Amino acid sequence: MEVLIDNILKKNQLSVTGSRKKILELFLQSNGALAHSDIEKKTGEKFDRVTVYRTLQSFLDKGIIHTIPTSDNSIRYALCKDDCSKGHHHDNHVHFVCSKCTNTICLDHVTIPSVKLPTGFKASEFQMIVNGICKSCQN
Amino acid sequence: MEVLIDNILKKNQLSVTGSRKKILELFLQSNGALAHSDIEKKTGEKFDRVTVYRTLQSFLDKGIIHTIPTSDNSIRYALCKDDCSKGHHHDNHVHFVCSKCTNTICLDHVTIPSVKLPTGFKASEFQMIVNGICKSCQN
DNA sequence: GTAACTGCAAAATATTTGCATCCTT
DNA sequence: AAGGATGCAAATATTTTGCAGTTAC
After folding, report:
1. Which of A23, A60, A86, A107 shows the greatest Cβ crowding within 10 Å of its Cβ?
2. Residues with Cβ < 8 Å from A43, sequence gap 6 or more?
3. Cβ atoms < 10 Å from Cβ of A14
4. Contact A131 B124 (CB under 8 A)
5. What is the C-alpha separation between A126 and B130, in angstroms, rounded?
6. Is any atom of strand C within 7 angstroms of residue A16's beta carbon?
7. Higher-confidence residue: B88 or A40?
8. Is A128 within 8 Å of A112 (Cβ atoms)?
9. What confidence tens digit (pLDDT) does each residue in B11-20 have?
10. What is the C-alpha separation between B112 and A126, in angstroms, rounded?
11. Inter-chain touch A131–B118, beta carbons under 8 Å
12. Given A107, A109, A115, which is nearest B94 (Cβ)?
């Protein structure tokens, strides 16, 4: 794990520092998406708030993570899968937001179906969010 | 128009006031979605910022408008269509976000295709956002 | 007249920026 | 050693809350 994390950072020309390792580890552990506040909580106040902002921003810039649209004012970030790092972000799967546990889960195997847009519109990216009750909260 | 606006408000047991009429009118005019900041701009600083927050909240509560997920920290609101007011929000169309003019447009005639979720997941709502260049910015 | 709505002030939160210091390479 | 990353302080921006005055019904 340790090695994997270092490799991801190096591959993206980011220096390997404590906060980056820790935050990246968080993403690798949770297979869902994280909001800024989640990260602050789960790292246990170890880092400055500002460092979290900047770390997320640099991960975004490098394409290590991407944002997921939400309906509340809290951007959520998720790891990009392999094909993302090549520049284009084809994060081509559906995201599921559980209304019970509020987790955002990547449904990696559910691909976003394509839609036909009216003439004049040129699409560059498709996002799909499904709200409901997730597997773990089902009872 | 004036009458229509009053009717919407009355139908939802909201008293008819200047700010509500003005803001509702804005929504009726723009067939896209509006962010809080859009509303402040377009009403020309006439209302207190707080009034805008509260007005939007009461419209949300009554189901007159709904939120649209975004990837930047700016909730966008759009008018609900007729079948929304019955309680369930089946805002069943695709939203288009133009990366040039940043407008969010309701593609009323593009329905969200259904997807098959993994077992254990129960969906209650589907949202789809398409990013790209809109009709007006195409040149 | 009463309940609901608004505007102002202020509190609480969230985000950004500058700069000195420290760490990675 | 040099450039980049971090933490602190502080500037901005955003959202929420309380309260007194005003307006709609």
Report:
1. A23
2. A22, A23, A26, A52
3. 17
4. yes
5. 5
6. yes
7. A40
8. yes
9. 999 999 999 9
10. 12
11. no
12. A115
Tell me how far apart the alpha carbons of residues A103 and B96 are, in angstroms, rounded to a whole number: 25
Check residue B87 and give its pLDDT: 44
Q: In this structure, are residues A23 and A55 in contact, taking their beta carbons and an 8 Å threshold?
A: yes
* Interatomic CA–C1' length for residue B54 and nucleotide C7, angstroms: 12
- The answer regarding whether domain B2-138 maps to CATH 1.10.10.10 reads yes
Dig out the tokens for A113 from the structure.
């179906």
Ordered by start, the domain boundaries in chain A are 2-138
Note the pLDDT tens digit of each residue in A24-67.
999 999 878 999 999 988 887 678 999 999 999 999 999 999 99
Per-residue confidence (pLDDT) for residue A91, from 0 to 100: 65
Is strand C in 7 Å reach of the CB of B51?
Answer: yes
Residues of B in contact with A118 (CB under 8 A): 107, 109-110, 135
- Tokens linked to B46: 């006439």
The residues, ordered by sequence, that sit 6+ positions from A45 with a Cβ below 8 Å of its Cβ are none
Nearest-CB residue to B132 (from A99, A122, A131): A122
Q: Does pLDDT of B82 surpass 70?
A: no
pTM metric for this prediction: 0.85
As a whole number, mean pLDDT of residues A88-106 equals: 80
| Position B115, amino acid | V
Single-letter amino acid, residue B25: E
